[in-house]
Amino acid sequence: MLRPIVVHRGRKRKGKGFSLAELKAAGLNKLKAKKLGIAIDKRRKTCLEENINMLKEFLKGRENV
User: Fold this and answer.
1) Cα three-residue angle 28-57-23, rounded to 5 degrees
2) If DSSP codes are grouped into helix, strand and coil, which group holds residue 57?
3) First-to-last CA distance in the chain?
């Protein structure tokens, strides 16, 4: 399962799901993300570049298969 990086109290840890802003920046919507098995966290508001790149790499790998 694909898990995002979350910054909490200055430390990085694995999060529960990607924020809606990160999904949008990677070119996904909620429905497509759920179909691909990507976890979504509605409570998160941040949009980290690291997570966007992770989603884009995941999508690139899915296109080749």
Assistant:
1) 25
2) helix
3) 17
Query: Whole domain around residue 13: which residue ranges?
Result: 5-64
pLDDT, tens only, 27-58? 999 999 999 999 999 999 999 999 999 999 99
**2-23 residue pLDDT tens:** 899 999 999 999 999 999 999 9
36 alpha carbon, distance to own chain's centre:
11
> CA 47, 57, 39 angle in degrees (round to 5)?
55
Domain count, the chain: 1
Amino acid at 46: T
Q: Which residues contact 16 (CB under 8 A, 6 or more apart)?
A: 3, 39, 41
